[in-house]
Design goal:
Number of helices: 3
Low-confidence stretches: 139-148
Distance between the termini: 31 Å
CATH topology: Nucleotidyltransferase, domain 5
Order of helices and strands: HEEEEHEHE
Number of domains: 1
Radius of gyration: 17 Å
Shape: globular
Strand content: 25-35%
CATH class: Alpha Beta
Amino acid sequence: MIEQVIADDSTQIVVVDCTFTAKNDCHTHGLNWFYNGKTQRAERGLEWSVVAIVDLTQKTGYALSAQRTEAGLSAQVPAAVDESQPSKSQVDFYLGYLAYCTTYFSARIRYVVADGFYSKYKWVTGVVQLGFHAIGQAAQQCRLQVSL
């Protein structure tokens, strides 16, 4: 449906970010502690990873897909307790979800844009391996150098 409203000659990018839904009950599946940007702290609730297509020509964004983030993931890869089962981080989850969504991208899309959280070596190299260029805000103390 998105391709039907975007002109063939428009410039498009993909934007990735998460959104938070506060939940206080204890019966909701996937309930965990996630960062809530509105309050600038981790809170108990659900997190949704959202992938959107932005038409730069029309200055309009279209939500392509949203998936609930798995509970129990860490921002960094934890040491594996069981060596046969590799540990999974939030970045691994986000990359897997982005890879799933690429089947719905227009062939004209070349750039994936995300906020500073995603400015990690693992994210940038994963996006490049998927065939895209990563655009984000790197922290001053951590400049990423990836050959594109």
